[in-house]
């Protein structure tokens, strides 16, 4: 199967969405018996070449297209439009990471034109707590069509699932929590290493239990998810 992953940036400093894309691509590429060909189309915004090469050794092809909006969250890469126009029909399925992006606009257009199914994983980016007017405009002009036409939507939590339902009539929404690479925990560091590295005093380990502990616990549970 030929799989195309789309993500606006590819550097571990961006956090969970890149980590999910990285590990998923690695696992798919290493399933040699199934002969999955994995390509990641991204931009050159803070592109981490060394990080990308660790995936390329597994057989993943990574394409960092030129970004023309440094200093913004638009990640405008006109080259993706020309590339998708000719290449998208070669893929069996597309996995979109993040929701409001320049890349998703063009993926949606050409995926619908050539009948290529795509999965959308917003990574908790659907809410509008910040930049409400800009996000609302994107949703009205592009976003709702991207959500409605997705073959499946992957939510990172029950809370995100409920919010997504307010934005789309697409009922194909599944909650899949972010995976953990267990290999990274085979040889964990000593318990004191982190405290010593960052100069955290021993008294910081003592935590007072607040009177409204149940409320705090609920907030913590939501934050962890």
Please provide a written account of the structure:
The structure is a single chain. This protein has 225 residues and is an alpha/beta fold. The chain has a single domain (2-186), classed as Glycogen Phosphorylase B (Rossmann fold), CATH 3.40.50.2000. It is built from eight helices and seven strands. The chain has helices at 16-30, 49-56, 79-87, 102-114, 132-148, 158-167, 193-197, 213-224, and strands at 2-6, 37-43, 61-65, 93-97, 118-121, 152-155, 173-175. It has a seven-stranded parallel beta sheet with strand order 3-2-1-4-5-6-7, sandwiched between helices. Strand 5, helix 5 (132-148) and strand 6 form a beta-alpha-beta unit. The longest helix has 17 residues, at 132-148. The chain is globular, with a radius of gyration of 20 Å. Residues 204-225 have low confidence and may be disordered.
At a glance:
The chain is of the alpha/beta class and 225 residues long. Helices cover 40% and strands 15% of the residues. It has one domain: Rossmann fold (3-Layer(aba) Sandwich), CATH 3.40.50.2000.
Itemize the secondary structure elements and their pairings.
Blueprint: E1 2-6, H1 16-30, E2 37-43, H2 49-56, E3 61-65, H3 79-87, E4 93-97, H4 102-114, E5 118-121, H5 132-148, E6 152-155, H6 158-167, E7 173-175, H7 193-197, H8 213-224
Parallel strand pairs: 1-2, 1-4, 2-3, 4-5, 5-6, 6-7
Helix pairs in contact: 3-4
């Amino acid at each position: 199967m030929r799989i195309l992953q789309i993500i606006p940036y590819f550097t571990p400093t961006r956090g969970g969405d890149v980590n999910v894309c990285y590990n998923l691509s690695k696992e798919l590429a290493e399933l040699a018996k199934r002969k999955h060909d994995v390509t990641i189309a991204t931009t050159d915004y803070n592109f981490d070449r060394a990080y990308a090469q660790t995936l390329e050794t597994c057989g993943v092809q990574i394409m960092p297209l030129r970004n023309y909006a440094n200093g913004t969250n638009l990640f405008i890469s006109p080259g993706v439009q020309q590339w998708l126009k000719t290449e998208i029909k070669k893929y069996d399925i597309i996995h979109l990471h993040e929701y409001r992006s320049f890349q998703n606009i063009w993926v949606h257009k050409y995926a619908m034109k050539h009948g290529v199914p795509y999965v959308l994983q917003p990574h908790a980016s659907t809410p509008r707590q910040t930049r409400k007017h800009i996000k609302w405009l994107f949703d009205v002009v592009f976003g709702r069509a991207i959500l409605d036409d997705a073959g499946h939507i992957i939510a990172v939590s029950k809370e995100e699932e409920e919010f997504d339902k307010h934005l789309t009539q697409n009922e194909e929404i599944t909650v899949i929590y972010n995976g953990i690479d267990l290999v990274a925990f085979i040889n964990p560091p000593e318990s004191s290493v982190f405290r010593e590295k960052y100069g955290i005093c021993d008294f910081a380990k003592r935590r007072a239990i607040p009177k409204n502990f149940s409320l705090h616990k609920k907030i913590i549970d939501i934050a962890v998810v």
